[in-house]
Prior knowledge:
With 245 residues, the chain is mainly α. The chain folds into two domains: 1-95, Winged helix-like DNA-binding domain superfamily/Winged helix DNA-binding domain (Arc Repressor Mutant, subunit A), CATH 1.10.10.10; 98-244, GntR ligand-binding domain-like (Four Helix Bundle (Hemerythrin (Met), subunit A)). It has helices at 29-45, 57-64, 68-80, 99-120, 129-144, 147-164, 170-177, 179-187, 196-211, 214-238; strands spanning 54-55, 84-87, 91-94, 97-98, 243-244. A three-stranded antiparallel beta sheet has the order 1-3-2. A hairpin with a 3-residue loop joins strand 2 (84-87) and strand 3. Helix 2 crosses helix 3, helix 4 (99-120) packs across helix 8 and helix 4 packs antiparallel against helix 10 (214-238). The longest helix is centred in the last third of the chain and has 25 residues, at 214-238. The chain is globular and about 60 Å long. It starts with 28 loop residues before the first helix and ends with a strand. 36% of the residues are buried. Residues 1-12 have low confidence and may be disordered. This is HTH gntR-type domain-containing protein. InterPro entries: GntR_C, TF_FadR/GntR_C, Tscrpt_reg_HTH_GntR, WH-like_DNA-bd_sf, WH_DNA-bd_sf. Residues 1-25 are annotated as: Disordered. It comes from Candidatus Lumbricidiphila eiseniae. One of its GO terms (molecular function) is DNA-binding transcription factor activity.
Amino acid sequence: MPSARSGLSAGGDNQQLNFFPSPRPSIQHNRISDWVDTELCEAIRSLQLVPGTPLSEPKLAAALNVSRAPVREALTRLADQRLVTIVPQVGTRVAPIPMSDVVEACFIRTALERGAFSRAIQEKSLNLDSIREILARNTEAFARRDEHAWFESDDLLHQEVFGLAGVPHVWKVIRGVKVNLDRLRRLAFPYVFDTPGILAEHTEIVDALASRDESAGLSVISQHANRIIDESVLFQDRFPSYFTD
């Protein structure tokens, strides 16, 4: 289920952190906490750290080869993002997935991607070579049931819509608000590979770009972005402790 990005694993209260983060950059103290924040956020996003996993400041500091101060700062920021819960005198744990955040992320993503699609098809020169290559990789990943390749190519395909619209940096906004959505998407494996409609919708998005069919494109983007909400009850039933309202 988790990607192989860092190897930070979940477990019980006495867990051992098998954490292999990216190399620590040569940065000043006030930026070290940013790096720690990114490492932990991505581990939570990818479900290398599942909801409920205890987070020990000393263990995290040792794994990241930093002092406890930047770890504490990073955990405070993650708490503000509702990604961890900090209970004084009790401890810190990875927070459950708030479905309200997932709904908001889907709303933002749908609105922005629909806007990007409408803008893209107005471009006089619309080169679809890149998005078609990404779609081919996505199709191959689906056939192989390759979770990592599927997730990566899925994001790249939607990111490319913003690139075609000439607003590539908007994807950074979306990625910033969809951490909890991505956690839910990770839980959807391997269910995704038994749902061919998901892949078909990717194809429909590319086809609508090619034909400059705004109605079809906006419709499939809305359907595709909100599919995960409609199907989330399956995962909430299976992993009830991973979710909150």
